[in-house]
Each structure stands twice: as C-alpha cells, then as structure tokens.
C-alpha cells in the first residue's frame, strides 16, 4: 500500500533567506517582493507579516503603508526552487522515493521505509523537529495518496497521520481548496453552493465535467485513491546500485522473490570488490502505470551476504502492490560501511558473529526497531536510573552490576504507591495493599538504604529510600520502599516484582 508524506513549507522563501543572512529576528515581519507588470507586489510573507494582514499578491506600497519599517527582500524563485531540490535530496535519508513539489512542498513515499524511523508518527515528529531547529517552518502529514496528504497539511493539524483508508472520512468536510484547485475554479464552484469536498461527491460527474472541465473530478479521484497520481521522484545519488529491466511485466510473489535474490547477489558482488557492507537497502519496483513501489531494510552491522540480504528483502515484499505489472527493479545501498574479509570459522571453533547480527535483523523487521534491544548498566544509585536501553550489538562499556546486589526480576517503569501496615514507623511492613488487593507479608528482609544523587538535583540532597524485599503468603515477592515521613506517617511505594534469596523475617 502506498503511504505518502507531504512536507509543506508555508514560509519557505523567507525562511531560506533568514538562514542565509541571519536576520531579521523571527518576530519582525519579512516579505519578498517581485515585479508584476507596472507594480511591485508581495510574492511571499513570513508568519509575523501574515499576522499583520499581509498576503501574497498585495501591492508593496500598500504593505509598507500598513507596516512602516517593513523588511523587504527581492524574490528569488530560481534560488527557492534550487534550495527546495537540495532539501528534497536531504530527505532521501528517510526513504528512497522523494519528489519536490514546487514552490513550497516535498513528497516522500515512505511505504516500506517508515519502520526504519520507528513508524510514521515518529518519522513526522523527527522531520518537524530537525527542520524546526534549522529555522524552517513546516507542516507534515502522511496518507494513502499525495492529494490527501497535501490537503491534511493545509487544512488539518501541523502533524497529521491519516490511517490507511482515512482519506474517505477526513476529506469530505474540508474546503474545496484542499483539492489543489485554482482559485478561479473554487470561486466558480462556490457560486453554485459547492464549498466542501463532500459537496462534489454528491454531484453527477457529467455536468460537472461539462462546466468545469476534468480538473475537479481528477483531483477528487486522485485524493480518494480512485485514480493514480505518479510523482517525478528524484534519482538518488547512490554509488552502489544495480538494476534489472523485464521484457514482460511481472507481479507474482515468487517472481518478486527471485528478482530480489538476483539483485542482492549482484549488489553483494560490487560491495565485495570495494570491501564494503550494506547498512541499508532500498528496493524500488516501477509499475507499468508509472507508480513506484519501494521497500527499505536496515542491518545491525555491515553485511554483503546475498542470502541474508535477500531474506531481509523477502520479509518486506508483501508490501509491494504490483498493480497491472512491474517492468523494472532497482536495488541500492545508500548507506555502507567498511567490511574487511574474514577467515571462516572451522568446525568446533567459535560461531560466526554475523549469525547473531542476521538474527537481530530479522527480529527487527518482524517486531519493529524499538522492540529489539538489550539492557546496559549505568553508574547510578537509584534503581530506575541504573539501566538503559542500547542497540543489540552495542559494544560493552565496562560498567557492570555487582553480582551480590539483590534486585527484583522485574522493575516497574514508575514506582506505584501502596498502603502499608507496619508495627513501627521504621519496621518492615506486615501487610500492604496494591491495586486494590490486600497482601499479608509472610517474610521480609531489609532495609537497604539508598541516598539521593545530590550532584544531579538539589531536591535530592536529603532524599533517602529504605528498600524491603517481602514475600506474601502465596509466595509472590515484591520490592517495596519508603521515601519520606509525613504527618500521616511514611510514604510507601512498590518498585519491583519477583526476586529470590529472602532471609527470615
């Protein structure tokens, strides 16, 4: 299924000029002007100017009268287009199918590639943050079609994810300009009372085409995924790439698998000659109707094993929609690293370390990149800070946990409050209530006192926790602590579940 991101840059000309010149500050209005016949008009305005009522098309003299001291720059449409193309090329780091949408947009087809960034929502957030830090105002959306994504960036939230098929529910309530119609057509339709996309859905197609041409119905069908919309994707500047063209269109799953294996073998041969291994692969199929279908996979460590690379690609092939057939396939490795030749292990020797990397790659493909990790120790007194997630094959840091340190088998992400009954304020609990269930303590061990890390926060200078390992009457074990005395007694928390080695109470 196709999934297209629309990146909308509403103030691209002024944002680009600010990045190059360093001023004026974002809160001061900035406009770009161009000659239009005998007068000069505004061709672009920034957010501050728009808040003052300035709009593209307004005469420059009128704008200066409304806003004395207005900063005016000369419009540079050629420079803006070249800068947009460079920004689109930068977006190739996210997916292999990227196309500029002049004058202020970029398309990114992320079907089969969004998982490398943690999913579509994570990818949109990363795009907005990175471009925002660069001083570029941006709105992003992802949908099944370019038209639906374009409409969402202009008419919905700055960061919108329309689920598969969601355009059918989201588009009808949007204004007609969301269909990328020219202002004259929108105005003519409005005279007939047709102001929303849903109004066009109720109209007979014949009279609509006769009066307004093919454009309204074509844009409507493209946005709703009833008609294809090919995009002019950039050719990625990849050095390591191979290509196969087919005399007859293909589409059978087993044929796609064979083609992927052949391409992987061809690419691996070239990588071997250069002493390189692939860290990311982009596989693009061209359909006979002009639409491109792509998938991307990543590896935990450099690899040029054609069988392993082919297996990774095979996991993603079900996402390819062949339509009426595919007539070309391209496989590229946009990210590579050095990979020197290694002596193969003999029988009885240590196993090949690449086997673990291959297993991790397949688990990441099936479970997602955020779900395959290992835990690494951190030098910290407080238990929730003493561990962090790292990549599965991250090198060891030399930090270890003490072997004799009693800790639960499962640590809760956030300690949960419990009601505790204790004979004395500083005695072990004799019973506690957690999540509405009362548990009587059969055995307990402690306390283990842990002090706050005063070098991290001032409010931890006097902080202490007294931890107890307890076992209830059913044999279940818990890790409790009290952290402060109040007028109502001590506050108690449950921090962990399941541990061994309790002493007698």
From TrEMBL:
Functional description taken from the UniProt entry:
Poorly processive, error-prone DNA polymerase involved in untargeted mutagenesis. Copies undamaged DNA at stalled replication forks, which arise in vivo from mismatched or misaligned primer ends. These misaligned primers can be extended by PolIV. Exhibits no 3'-5' exonuclease (proofreading) activity. May be involved in translesional synthesis, in conjunction with the beta clamp from PolIII.
On assembly, the entry states: Monomer.
The alphabetical list of record keywords is: DNA damage
A Pfam family this chain is assigned to: IMS
Which PROSITE patterns does the record match to this protein? UMUC
Which GO BP terms, alphabetically? DNA repair
Query: What lineage is this protein's organism placed in?
Result: Bacteria, Pseudomonadati, Pseudomonadota, Alphaproteobacteria, Hyphomicrobiales
> What is its cofactor?
Mg(2+)
Q: What is this protein called?
A: DNA-directed DNA polymerase
Occurrences of domain UmuC (ranges): 27-158
Stated EC number for the protein is: 2.7.7.7
What catalytic activity does the UniProt entry give for this protein? DNA(n) + a 2'-deoxyribonucleoside 5'-triphosphate = DNA(n+1) + diphosphate
Molecular function, one GO term: damaged DNA binding
- What InterPro entries does the database record attribute to this sequence? DNA/RNA_pol_sf, DNA_pol_Y-fam_little_finger, DUF6504, Rev_trsase/Diguanyl_cyclase, SulA_CellDiv_inhibitor, UmuC
Family, according to the entry, reads as follows:
Belongs to the DNA polymerase type-Y family.
């Amino acid at each position: 299924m196709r999934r297209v991101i629309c990146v909308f840059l509403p103030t691209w000309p002024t944002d680009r000029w600010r990045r190059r010149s360093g001023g004026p500050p974002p809160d001061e209005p900035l406009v770009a002007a161009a000659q239009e016949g005998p007068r000069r008009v505004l061709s672009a305005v920034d957010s501050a100017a728009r808040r003052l009522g300035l709009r593209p098309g307004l005469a420059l003299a009128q704008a200066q009268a409304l806003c004395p001291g207005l900063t005016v720059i000369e419009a540079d449409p050629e420079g803006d287009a070249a800068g947009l193309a460079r920004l689109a090329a930068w977006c190739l780091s996210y997916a292999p199918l990227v196309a500029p949408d002049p004058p202020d947009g970029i398309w990114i087809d992320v079907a089969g590639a969004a998982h490398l960034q943690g999913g579509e929502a994570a990818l949109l957030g990363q795009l907005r943050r990175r471009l925002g830090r660069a001083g570029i105002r941006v709105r992003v959306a992802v949908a099944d079609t370019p038209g639906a994504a374009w409409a969402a960036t202009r008419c919905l939230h700055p960061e919108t994810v329309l689920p598969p098929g969601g355009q059918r529910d989201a588009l009808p309530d949007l204004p007609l300009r969301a269909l990328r119609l020219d202002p004259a057509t929108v105005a003519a339709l409005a005279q007939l009372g047709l102001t929303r996309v849903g109004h066009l859905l109720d109209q007979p197609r014949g009279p609509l085409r006769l009066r307004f041409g093919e454009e309204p119905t074509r844009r409507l069908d493209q946005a709703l995924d009833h008609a294809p919309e090919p995009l002019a994707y950039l050719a990625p500047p990849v050095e390591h790439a191979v290509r196969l063209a087919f005399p007859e269109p293909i589409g059978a799953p087993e044929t796609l698998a064979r083609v992927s294996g052949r391409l992987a073998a061809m690419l691996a041969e070239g990588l071997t000659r250069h002493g390189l291994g692939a860290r990311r692969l982009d596989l693009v199929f061209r359909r006979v109707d002009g639409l491109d279908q792509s998938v991307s996979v990543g590896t935990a460590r450099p690899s040029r094993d054609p069988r392993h690379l082919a297996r990774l690609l095979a996991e993603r092939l079900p996402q390819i929609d062949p339509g009426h057939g595919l007539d070309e396939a391209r496989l590229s490795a946009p990210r590579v690293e050095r990979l020197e030749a290694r002596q193969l292990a003999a029988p009885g020797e240590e196993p090949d370390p690449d086997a673990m990397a291959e297993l991790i790659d397949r688990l990441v493909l099936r479970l997602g990149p955020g779900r395959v990790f290992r835990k690494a120790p951190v030098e910290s007194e407080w238990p929730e800070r003493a561990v962090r997630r790292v990549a599965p094959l991250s090198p060891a840091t030399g930090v270890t946990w003490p072997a004799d340190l009693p800790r639960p088998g499962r640590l809760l992400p956030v300690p949960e409050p419990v009601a505790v009954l204790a004979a004395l304020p500083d005695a072990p609990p004799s019973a506690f209530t957690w999540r509405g269930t009362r548990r009587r303590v059969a055995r307990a061990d402690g306390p283990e006192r842990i002090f706050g890390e005063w070098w991290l926060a001032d409010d931890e200078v006097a902080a202490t926790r007294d931890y107890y390992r307890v076992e209830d009457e059913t044999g279940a074990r818990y890790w409790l602590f009290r952290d402060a005395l109040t007028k109502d007694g001590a506050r108690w928390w449950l921090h962990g579940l399941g541990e061994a080695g309790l002493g007698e109470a």
